[in-house]
Specification:
By secondary structure, this protein is mostly helical. It has one domain.
């Protein structure tokens, strides 16, 4: 069970990183307001 949870967390982190890359290309200004 723990391994599945870890894999899920890693997948979520990767998805977030992908979204960050895409969104920083689109609209970095409001994106930075949300997360920085």
């Amino acid at each position: 069970p723990e391994q599945c949870v870890r894999e899920g967390e890693i997948a979520a982190q990767n998805a977030i990183l992908e979204l960050k890359k895409k969104l920083t290309k689109v609209k970095p200004s409001w994106w930075k307001r949300l997360f920085y």
